[in-house]
Design a protein that fits this description.
Layout lengths: L2 E6 L17 E2 L2 E2 H10 L4 E7 L5 H10 L5 E3 L7 H11 L5 E4 L9 H14 L1 E7 L5 E4 L2 E5 L6 E10 H13 L7 H7 L5 E4 L10 H15 L1
Parallel strand pairs: 1-4, 1-6, 4-5, 7-11
Antiparallel strand pairs: 2-3, 6-10, 7-10, 8-9
Helix pairs in contact: 5-6
Bound molecules: cytidine-5'-monophosphate.
The site of cytidine-5'-monophosphate (C5P) has 17 residues, from helix 3.
Length: about 230
Amino acid sequence: MEYTVMMPAAGSGTRMGAGHNKLFLELEGKPILARTLAVFQQDPWCTGIILAVKETERTTIETIIQQEQITKINALPEGGTERQHSVKACLAAHQTGGIVLVHDAARPFIKQDVIHELVMSASRHGGAVAGVKVKDTMKYVKDGIVEETADRERLWIIQTPQAFRYEILEESSRKAEDESFLGTDEAMLAEHAGYEVRIVESTYDNIKMTTPEDLAYGGYLLKKRLE
Ligand code: C5P
């Protein structure tokens, strides 16, 4: 099966505190961005990569793409102020339909078998997201007081990739824009538009590099994989 991946890479990564885009931080000698791009470059099902970038970082990103011999890049649209806007810019740059995946450039540890399950599920059902079951007890808290304990059996931690038939993501994104609805992931936009979204069980190590601790854990994960 085939798919195109849309990768928002236009964030500022303030929680990482690097003073620049966290995607340029290195994991075992290569930028995080290069590590994530390589996963899709190496996946035979992936036919194209669309990367949303900040205008000021375009040259640096083009250099990484060249150095790492990432040949599947279809477009480098300019990202927006919110992640959702960066994804919208990717959608506008890709109008050929088929199955599209949205994947955070900051998640370099995604496994190919999970990607393929997502593509198959989206092709069959319309939309599917990667997730893992919650391990801890979860509670709703307001003003420092526990309101209620959530039913852990029904709670999942949602990651990317998030896979959709192109028309579904495009319509969901357009509806969200029209209604000024801001979601924290693409599935939320599809849910808002009335579409069913399936879960594909992923792995706990598909972490998003967000804070400095993630960098330390990411370095450990990568070393283990390269051994
Ligand atoms: O900030 P966070 O880690 O949640 O961002 C997830 C992904 O979305 C990152 O790869 C980041 O570069 C991207 N992003 C973007 N445009 C924004 C905000 C985030 O492309 N305005």
